[in-house]
Structure formats: C-alpha cells, structure tokens
Design goal:
Structural class: mainly alpha
Family: Belongs to the heme-copper respiratory oxidase family.
Shape: globular
Radius of gyration: 25 Å
InterPro entries: Cyt_c_oxase-like_su1_dom, Cyt_c_oxase-like_su1_sf, Cyt_C_Oxase_1
Domain Cytochrome oxidase subunit I profile: 38-554
Protein name: Cbb3-type cytochrome c oxidase subunit I
Organism: Paenibacillus thailandensis
C-alpha cells in the first residue's frame, strides 16, 4: 500500500485528484456506451484494425483534438498562476510539471498527429492513389503514436509528470535532478511515438514518389503534397537524432552512463546540441505542411492558379534543407564564440528569405481574385499578418547580440507561440475545415465556425502581444511567481484573459462539430468548395478504394482543368471499363504490437523486468507474425465497385 499510494498513484494535490476522477469517469462512460450499444465488434473491425488511410487520418485528428484540450488546460493553468504576483494556485513543482507537459503535448502529441491526420486524409487523394505505399505500416505508425502519447499522459496521475522542461536539458533530466520516474515517462513516451513518426515520414515519401496517378509529374503535384514531401524528408533525417539523443539520456539514467554528466566526463552541452539538431528542424516539420494547406486554400477560394508555383516548390525544399543549419541560434548565450554565433545568425536570416517569398505568392494569388470568405480562407488570411509579425521577431532573435537580451525572456515565448499558433495551428484548422467534407460528407457550420475563428484570433493577440512587452521589461520564462514591485501584473492579467478567450474559441469549435453532426446537410457533389485538385473529383466521403478508375493527369490543377474542358464542350474520352481493385486487408497486428511496446515502455519506466521481458517478446512475436502473414490483400469485385459508384451518383442528384 505504501508503494501504491506513495509512489505509483500521485496523491496530495486536489487538481491531480480531479484529473484522476475525471479519467476514471470518462473511461467508465466509454465502456458503458460501447457495451450498451453493442459497438465493441464495430470498434474492432471498423477502426482498431483498419488500414484505410482515411480512417487512420480521422483517428489521428480525434487524438490531436483531445491532446489540444489537454495541452490547452495546461496553458490555462500556467496563465492562471501568472495572472497575479506570488499566487499559490500551482506550487513550484507542479508548475514545472505543467509547463513541461504543455510543451511536449502541444508539439509532439497535438501538432504532429494533426499533421499526420491531414497527410492521411489528403495526400493519396491528391495524387490519385488508392492508398499509401505501406498501409500496414501506416496503421502501426498511428498506434505507436497513440500508445506513446498515452504512456506520456498517464504520468500526470501515475508516478508523476516530468518536470525538467519540454526539451529535458541535463542535469535537470539526469537522475540527480529528476530522481523520480517522470523523466522515464518522458523518454519512453516520446521514443515510442517517435518511431511511429519516423515510419510515417518514410511511408509518405514512398507514397508521393512512387504512387502518383499516371501522367502526374513532380511539378504537377498539388502544393500540399509538395509540402508533405518536404516535411517527410525532414522527418527522415531529424527523428533519428531524437531517438539517439533520448537513448543516450536513458543510458545515463538507467545504466549509470555519463554521456551528459560533467562529473563523469560527459558534457551536457552535447545534449543541448543534439536535441536542437532535431528540435529546430521539428518546428519546420510542422509548419511546412501548413504552408501547403494555405497554398491550396488560397488558390481554391480566390479561383486562381497559385502564383509562383515553381518558386513555392523551391522555397519549401530550401527550408527543409536549411532548417538543419540553424539549431545553434537557440543557445547563442552558451559561449560558443563569435564565429560560430555569426554563422548560425546568418543561416537563420537566410531561412527567412524562402519563408517570406511564400507570403508574396499568396498575396499575389489573392490579387484580383474572386475571394470566397469561408472559414478555411478566413484562417488563411488571419495567418498572414500573424506570421509576418512572428517572422520579424524571429529575425530579431537571430541577431546574436540582441539575443543576449531576449534569450529566455517572455519576448521569446511570444515569438514562438506567434509562429506555432498563428502558423501551425491556424494552418491545420484551415486544413481541417477544408477537408472536413471529404472526410465526413458535410461541411461544418459556418456561423459557429466564424465565432470560433474570432475568439481564437482576438484571444491570441490579447494573450501574446503583452508578452513581447513583458519580455522587454525583464520577465523571464519558467518562473512560477514574481513580485508586485516589478510592475508585470497588469500585462500578465491581460495575457491571461486572452488565453481564456482562446479557450472559449476551442469550446465554440467543439459546439460547431456537435451541432454540425446533428444538423448537417449532406454534401452531394463531392466538390464542396469548387476545388482544383483530384480529391474533389470523387464522392464525399471518399469510397474505400478512393478512385474507381485511376485518373490520368496532364496539368497542375487537373480537376479544375477537367471542369473547364467539360464546360467548354471538349469531347470526353470514353471511360475505361471497371476492373477489380486490389486492396489491403485489415489487421489487428499493429494494435497488438503497440500494446506490447507500451508494456516495454511502462516496464522501463518502473524498472520492472517482469513486464519488460514479455513486452519485448510480444514485440518480436508480432513482427514474426507479420513476416509470415501471406493472406494480406484482396480484390473488390467489379459489381461491388459499380454499385458503390451508382449509389454515389444517385445521392448526388
């Protein structure tokens, strides 16, 4: 009992007790609903074992929304603590844990799955493919991400959260600074989900390079697909660095190695270099797909071909490459020397050039366009001034002498939230609204969506603009309280009010989804926004096989050009006869394998060999089972394809 309530279950904090009760009640409610409505078999056959990229994308998005709620609650607790001087809402240890989990969850367990969800929804449809290159691996990637996220999140109520910061710098993350199991949860939660992220990057590079529709050249791909290629290539080179870095930290903690401990001959600065060699490409990994979303949305809602297509491609790929040469600007103050600081200051300024090019491309695309101000376009327009300000403050931070003043201040906090919320989150919201009809066959309610849009945007500026001033006034990050005499209280109160307004915006979005589920009008044409790319040429939601006949591509905006040809009365080539469609079978192995990975991670967290060993055996057993699985695919007969297509055509009338 002493272990159960002394070390295993976190006790003594009313906020954590509330979380434990909420988790228990939510879990019981889910079990009750699934049992009462007899949905366990449906859950297993339709979702848990699916290898359909569209369903996997939906699961990614649902997980990301849940993580946005969790990370958002953390943010509101942080802002509540800082609203007033010397407030005791969160004690110092709890505050450290909250800002640590907030950063990890928002970057790795909210932005990344939301990104992968949109990858899965749109990319195969945009390139005219019937699935991703490796459907089984796609399912395994999702479940590894999900189990890694769950392993990290349960630390809040079991064992204790990590509290060494979202990048876990030594010596705080070593045993001397974090003797509990919280840092082990950090390492293994990120490691397991990171394996899934790396596999997804490889999968989408293979999909884009090898599975494009007949005739589609690289320079005819939609811009979102280009951005996914750039992001996925960056994942392939960046995430192995994270894997090795966390493995070395674990060896320090578990086996008493001294890679990052000064007293044992190691060097904590090696960790800082390694983590930012992953960490700075990571912020571009999540922003590049948002650039692609904005490009497709602007072109669609301005009714114009994207301005400067080739320059956009060059900009995306340039950012992907140069992002690996900017990491040291995160620690100009660490004594690297003037020459090193100058090199990384220059590379940071250089990467601003291709980033800025895209702003002009979008503006020129909108120029003289017939703009439709639906919610995807509103999020895109809101992004532009927000990202310009964020980019300008980023250039200010790239100047090494100035960074000595800005470093670790709230000026920096305001900057990276400006680009990560105003860039990444706004971009993924635009993509979610844009492709929602393709996922579910109906649009989200526009009126409620605009309320959510304004709450988010007003709240964003009210929250983060004061933080620039607070940073210049000397307020530093990571402190949980300050003195009245410093004069920071008024701006902190304003900032906290802004955070709660953004929280209200999230509630509007939840209401919007619930309301739209109950009161939606079915989108019959499949072309909800009068789109330009191939995903809008098929019914909504897309059938299991995506395309009854693989399209032949001859131009950049193939679907738009096809509609123009039809309107002009150009003779349409006769359709080829339907053929049986080759598809992968569902598999429960990815889900089962992820459970074994969870067992391994949980076992290492607590140093339980009795759990590590069967978990590792299970991992290898599932790999073995997959290696000798030969009945992994099937053909959809022509009659079934014809019935599906006729039903979609009938529904469109």
């Amino acid at each position: 009992m002493d272990f159960l309530f002394g070390e295993f279950i976190v006790t003594g904090d009313p906020l954590i007790l509330g979380a434990q009760v909420s988790i228990l009640l939510a879990s019981l409610a889910i079990v009750f609903v699934l049992t009462y409505f007899k949905k366990w078999k449906w859950l297993w056959t339709e979702w848990i074992t699916t290898v359909d990229h569209k369903k996997i994308g939906i699961m990614y998005i649902i997980a990301a929304i849940i993580m946005l709620f969790r990370g958002g609650v953390d943010a509101l607790m942080i802002r509540t603590q800082l609203a007033l001087p010397e407030l005791e809402f969160l004690h110092a240890g709890h505050y450290n844990a909250v800002f640590t989990t907030h950063g990890v969850i928002m970057i790795l367990f909210m932005a990344m799955p939301l990104m992968f969800g949109l990858f899965n929804i749109a990319v195969p449809l945009q390139i005219g493919a019937r699935d991703v290159a490796f459907p089984f691996l796609n399912s395994l990637s999702f479940w590894l991400f999900f189990m890694g996220a769950m392993l990290f999140n349960i630390s809040f109520v079991i064992g204790g959260s990590p509290d060494a910061g979202w990048l876990a710098y030594p010596p705080l993350s070593e045993l001397s600074g974090s003797p509990g199991v919280g840092q082990n949860f950090y390492i293994w939660g990120i490691q397991i989900s990171g394996i899934g992220s790396l596999a997804s990057g490889i999968n989408f590079v293979a999909t884009i390079l090898k599975m494009r529709a007949p005739g589609m050249k690289l320079m005819q791909m939609p811009m979102f697909t280009w951005s996914v290629l750039a992001s996925s290539l960056t994942i392939m080179f960046a995430f192995p660095i994270l894997t090795v870095t966390l493995a070395l930290l674990f060896l320090d903690r578990y086996f008493g190695a001294h890679f990052f401990t000064l007293d044992g001959g190691g060097n904590p600065m090696m960790y800082v270099n390694l983590i930012w060699m992953w960490g700075h490409p990571e912020v571009y990994i999540v922003i590049l797909p948002a650039f692609g979303i904005f490009s497709d949305v602007v072109s669609t809602f301005a009714k114009k071909k994207l301005f400067g297509y080739k320059s956009m491609v060059f900009a995306l790929m340039s950012i992907s490459i140069v992002s690996f040469f900017t990491w040291l600007h995160h620690f100009f103050t660490m004594g690297s020397g003037a020459s090193v600081n100058a090199f990384f200051a220059v590379t940071t300024m250089i990467i601003a050039i291709p980033t800025g090019v895209k702003i002009f491309n979008w503006l020129f695309t909108m120029y003289k366009g017939r703009i439709n101000f639906s919610t995807p376009m509103l999020w895109t327009i809101a992004f532009i001034p927000c990202f310009v300000v964020g980019g300008m403050t980023g250039v200010m931070l790239s100047v090494a002498p100035a960074d000595f003043q800005f470093h670790n201040s709230y000026f920096l906090i305001a900057h990276f939230h400006q680009v990560l919320i105003g860039g990444v989150v706004f971009g993924y919201f635009a993509g979610m609204y844009y492709w929602w009809p393709k996922m579910f066959g109906f649009k989200l309610d526009e009126k409620i969506g605009k309320w959510a849009f304004w709450m988010w945007n007003i709240g964003f500026y009210v929250c983060f603009m004061p933080q620039y001033a607070l940073g210049l006034m000397g307020m530093t990050r990571r402190f949980n309280e300050y003195e009245m005499e410093l004069g920071w209280q008024p701006l902190n109160i304003v900032s906290t009010v802004g955070a709660f307004i953004m929280g209200l915006g999230f509630l509007f979005q939840v209401w919007q989804i619930v309301y739209s589920l109950k009161n939606h009008k079915k989108e019959k044409t499949g072309d909800a926004w009068d789109g330009r790319t191939l995903e809008w040429s098929i019914p909504s939601p897309a059938p299991m096989y995506n395309f009854a006949r693989l399209p032949h591509v001859s131009s950049q905006d193939e679907w738009w050009e096809e509609k123009q040809r039809r309107a002009a009365g150009v003779a349409v080539e006769p359709e080829k006869p339907l053929e049986p469609i080759h598809m992968p079978k569902n598999s429960g192995i990815p889900f089962i394998a992820s459970i074994f990975w969870f067992m391994v991670g949980f076992g290492f967290v607590w140093d339980w060999l009795w759990l590590i060993i069967p978990g590792a055996i299970g991992v290898f057993a599932t790999m073995y089972a997959r290696s000798f699985s030969f009945d992994t695919d099937y053909y959809i007969p022509v009659d079934e394809v014809r019935r599906t297509e006729e039903a979609a055509l009938k529904g469109a009338k």
